[in-house]
Amino acid sequence: MERPGAGEIHSNECENVSKKEKMSEEFEADTMDRLVDLPFATIDIKDDCRITDEPQINLKRSKENEQSKSDQIKKNKKQKDYQPNYFLSIPITKKEITRGIKILQNAIIQQDQRLAKAMVGDGSFHITLLVMQLFNEDEVNLGIDALLELKPFIEEILQGKHLILPFQGIGNFGNQVGFVKLAEGDHINPLLEIAEIAKRTFQEKGILAGESRGFKPHLTFMKLSKAPWLRKNGVKKIDPELYEKFISHRFGEETLYRIDLCSMLKKKQSNGYYHCESSIVIGKKPIGIQDLINEALHQERMGLKSKVKQIKELLLKPETQDKIRKELFEGRFISNSNQANDVDFGMTLT
How many CB atoms lie within 10 A of CB 90? Predict the structure, then answer.
């Protein structure tokens, strides 16, 4: 039996290697396609996944790079772990604005009924001033302190003037989120200053706050993420033609008079607005009697809530609980002792 020539063996090996390389390339391409479809995927996915075109041959350099890679992984992990769950909200209360947005939403729904579940409720309309991550009650209290410290800075920026926020036109983020635009004007710079000082104030408290992208004030009226099943039903983007009649529509003006620290995750209030931990009032709102009553009730509720929280924290302290137990048991012991003395005293008299 003849042994195959060396050349023939080399040819088969090359063919097998070629097939393996082709399969590896196809697998890598398929993996990349899947990663790009994930939420928040970026053009840097290839680098983050450590998929490189050049093999790491130099073992000495690998040791030198090990620490820098470890630091980068920790940095990436910290960024990925940053999931905001609280935010500073400027509530939208003007009926003219909410009424105009409801007309806009209904016009869109009439064209595509499936988008009804993607609409934001009118009680939730707001401008997000700052997002942050608060892990526990202690950090929530830090956030409340930061909000209270923010008030004099804002009043210094405004110098006693009202900040009027006019809304006009429609915009979107990647055709996934639809929002009413804040019109251009002299009100933009003060609002940007307030957003910046808010970010700095919260970060100085050690709170993870802010976003990588710049602050862009907007009033969200719909977002596809509210109804994930829409994607499965073929609705992957918001068609701009659905709101083209409102591109230049004037929705009205809101006066900045209150900023709330709200939770993204806690149950919303009965009126549809977010769970509010605390608020600050900026200047005086040009409003009617009912609005004044509502504001007074709101402040009263926030004050009571703060007192209840303080009482709860006090009762949870070990020293407080020990004192309560001590007083209860000592009181009971003294009472029993007095009863015994009374009996002895009576017996002595007889």
Answer: 23
Chain-centroid distance of CA 172 in Å reads 19
Overall size of the chain counted in residues: 350
Containing H/E element for 340? Answer: helix 318-349
CB 120, CB 226: distance < 8 Å: yes
Question: Token pair of 208, please?
Answer: 């993870």
List the structure tokens of 57.
């041959």
Query: Within 13 Å of residue 287, how many CA atoms lie on the same side as its CB?
Result: 19
The kind and range of the H/E element at 132 are: strand 126-133
The CA distance from 327 to 336, in Å, is: 14
For 94, half-sphere exposure in the C-beta direction (CA atoms, 13 angstrom radius) is 19
Element housing 281 (H / E): strand 276-281
Helical axes 318-349 vs 289-316, angle rounded to 10°: 70
Q: Please tell me the least confidently modeled range out of 74-83, 111-120, 260-269, 300-309.
A: 74-83
Looking at the DSSP assignment, which residues form a beta bridge with residue 299?
A: none
Instruction: Give 138-196 pLDDT, tens digit per residue.
Output: 999 999 999 999 999 999 999 999 999 999 999 999 999 999 999 999 999 999 999 99
